[in-house]
Amino acid sequence: MKKITVLLLIILMIVLIGVSSYAYMNTIDLNFEVTSNENNEQFDVFLLLPEKYIKFAILNNILDVNYEGASTLKNNDITGIEVKKENVQDELYEENGIEYTQILLEPDENGIYKFDLLEDYNKLDIKYRIKNEKKDYIVHIDNFKIENRKCEVQYDYDKDTVKQPDRTMINFSEILFIILIAIIIIGIISYIKKRR
Question: Global pTM?
Answer without folding.
Answer: 0.71
